[in-house]
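Severity: low
Component: inverse-folding endpoint
Summary: output formatting inconsistent between runs
Steps to reproduce: submit the following structure tokens with default settings.
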């Protein structure tokens, strides 16, 4: 890898702090995975103890499914960023749990998000 990658530092949320759950995919939109995931951030945004974070590798497609995702959480675009920059953004956002669902395509695998230095 070409640069320092922030080492993951999973920490428990402090008392009264929401659990920050990140969703990472290139399929937020009108795709099978996008349809399945569309309401998850919205449901989490209504939970008292959870704050969703959405990281998209695909461009906004204007679909109903993408709009549902955007209603639940601000979508952070990561397309075009290096692995290091993407990892830095997730680390800065204080995500406690990060799940990646890229469906069967797995068009972009950000190894830096899952490797420790």
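Observed output (run 2 of 3):
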């Amino acid at each position: 890898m070409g640069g320092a990658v922030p080492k993951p530092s999973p920490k428990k949320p402090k008392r009264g702090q929401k659990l920050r759950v990140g969703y990472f995919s290139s399929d937020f939109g009108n795709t099978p995975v996008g349809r399945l995931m569309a309401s998850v951030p919205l449901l989490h945004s209504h939970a008292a103890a959870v704050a969703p974070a959405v990281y998209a590798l695909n461009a906004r497609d204007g679909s109903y499914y993408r709009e549902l995702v955007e209603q639940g959480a601000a979508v952070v675009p990561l397309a075009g960023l290096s692995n290091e920059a993407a990892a830095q953004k997730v680390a800065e956002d204080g995500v406690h749990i990060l799940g990646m669902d890229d469906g069967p395509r797995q068009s972009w695998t950000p190894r830096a998000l899952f490797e420790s230095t």
